[in-house]
Amino acid sequence: MKNHKTLSCDIAIVGAGPAGLAAARAASVSQRSIAVIDDNPLPGGQIWRDGPQVSQLAMAKDYRRVLSLPTVRYLPGTRIVASLAAGALLLEDAQTSYRLDYEQLILCCGAQELLLPFPGWTLPGVTGAGALQALIKSGASVAGERVLIAGSGPLLLASAATARAAGALVSGVYEQTDRYQLINFGVGLLRWPGKLAQAFKLFSTRYRWRSHVIEAMGDRRLEAVRIRQGDAEAVIACDRLACGFGLVPNTVLAQHLGCSLEDNAVAVDRYQQTSQTGIYAAGECTGVGGSELALVEGEVAGLAATGKVEQAQALFTHRAYWQRFARHVKEHFGLRPEIRRLARVDTLICRCEDVALSVLAEEQGWNAAKLQSRCGMGACQGRICGSIARELFGWSLPEPRVPLVPARIETLMACSEKDMS
Amino acid sequence: MSLQARTAAADVVIVGAGIMGAMCAYELASRGLSILVIDNGTGGATGAGMGHLVVMDDNPAELALSRYSIALWNTLRKRLPEACAYRNCGTLWLAANDEECGLAEAKQARLVEYGAQSEWISASALRQLEPMLRPDLAGALKVFDDGILYAPATARWLLHQQDGRITVQEGDVTRVEGNRLCLSEGGWLTAPAILLANGLGAFRLLPDVPLRPKKGHLLITDRYPACINHQLVELGYAASAHADDGTSVAFNVQPRPTGQLLIGSSRQFDTLDKRVEFDVLGRMLMRAQDYLPGLGELNAIRGWTGFRVATPDGLPLLGQHPDQPGLWLALGHEGLGVTTASGSARLIAAQLLGEAPPFDPAPFRTERFVGVASHTPGAAA
């Protein structure tokens, strides 16, 4: 095959966000060979996403330096197509496919935004809250646009701050959780002073609680949003709506590798090892907890994978501190039941295959739904509608199928080249 | 007539709601019988297969059954809703060289005998019809009545016909004995007739029936509308399909109505491992690229495997169990179950109700491989 290469390393790390970079840094001390695979063109993951409109934090820059060490091979813009066998991954970038052989694997696959359907959510101009941040960081212009932010969780304020800094007119930030929960959340933040300071910095006078989107309206693109705030409704004209309901761990690769899940996240032990020996996981894919938790988990995983057990143990207290923060967030931004009932019978659930709520509501579970309606059979492989169906109907996530992401047929052919020659 | 006994669950209880069970239910209910279909929801070959409706002619019995079945599909297809995704795209049997041109000629002669219309497509005409194919092919035999459909939706549609005479129930059958069966929740169901149409699931219920799984891989691409217009199959396909051992691949590509390409095919014996094997998948794709040189550039979005259930002679078992009165079998259709569901169901119905069979049932009789007699030397001859 023309563009196929075989690589090998001692430790393969999937993801170059905070967890992946921390894992690489901790493991690099042992002088083992490391490969860092990341599907973004630039390192940093979602939170330290680099791009033309970004001024990076000093800490992010510092962590990124690990990628230029001689023992580290960094593979940006590279997607994981499948696990070929124990200890071997099939990868591809824009030109080349790779077989990567590894001894140990650290999964730092991050999280994806939880999008929940409401009428009009597929209109151009409507994105996730995190997705809007990503768009702006990669260079999209929102200057002078009227932007409305909605959904749930601390990400809304961060997204609003990014949009404002890029010149957008943020007309409101609508959080579904209620005032009581928010006050308790704020008071609880006293235990994490850094986070409290961050919340103050990001806080906006346009922040509204117990409020949510009912409908996005527009002919061919978004023109206005109907909002419910407490018991009142209002229609607000806007150019963009960024609506996300928090994050869900990205577990596709872990499931494919046979790792057990717990509470919809990759299950790990004290040393961040998954149910599969030699496969570790850290960061948001093991449970959403923010970058501070991801950093310490990544470090524990990097140390444990290189046999530095005592050094890993020394971090347990610090990790527990951020695990409590993760629980604190989760407890106060739980979704109210009406959020799961926003979609109407004709609202699309699967955007790839145009499958409406009414079609899915008749099915008993994901497998029957997929077989009969083609839900989840499009290019996104059910990543978005699978999470939606789990929230709306309580169905378990679809079993990942290979290729894990759309991949060139040439890449899939490369695997049996040896047997043919 | 009514076969229904006082305590019976229905006139006929069918195990398996795939295309075979659904078509048998549809056929029997059309004659006024009440049908209970029990399915364990695990899915089988109906969901995994290609849904190619194709006349196959490797032996006279297969040709008679598949030709009759295609004719039945052609009367049914006008009623199928869009969800069933029926398309009369025809099959192009591709000849790579002179030797395969000879195979095509012989194939055409056999098809004519059974009334299946076909036409020889010259090399230059083939380049016009399917420009994505490599240009040096010798030609192709086009079989007109062949088509494609989406089998899971078709099975469900069939089960919703016939004015409520078909009931579908989720359940796991753990034992069958003649005209009664046991469900895992406990309790026996009795009916004048029980029909097993549960493919691979029959292994557990009738361990002495010699059924062999043949694993297959399939891969589907992203949407590339109108780059292929017919089901494309290499003439060497039959050789692969009838190999007795080892792993084989053959070129078989289907244009889905969505614009996606569904790529097959592979055959492996005696494994029940559902995982995609990259070695086999890779060989299958290289074979496909041999015919479609531009294929490597296209994006694949999903690969999967399934199991064809085959009898020793490759023909299905259609009829009553020789030693268990009241127990009927529609099993072992291998890769041709979607095509032959219609004809198989018609034959089962005719036998069950004492009508004249629509075609010679002898090659399909269960005594070939089932029951005490089949285990005595010479019985299966």
UniProtKB/TrEMBL annotation, chain B:
Keywords: Oxidoreductase. Residues 11-350 form the FAD dependent oxidoreductase domain. InterPro entries: FAD-dep_OxRdtase, FAD/NAD-bd_sf. This is FAD dependent oxidoreductase domain-containing protein. It comes from the Bacteria. Gene3D superfamilies: D-Amino Acid Oxidase, subunit A, domain 2, FAD/NAD(P)-binding domain.
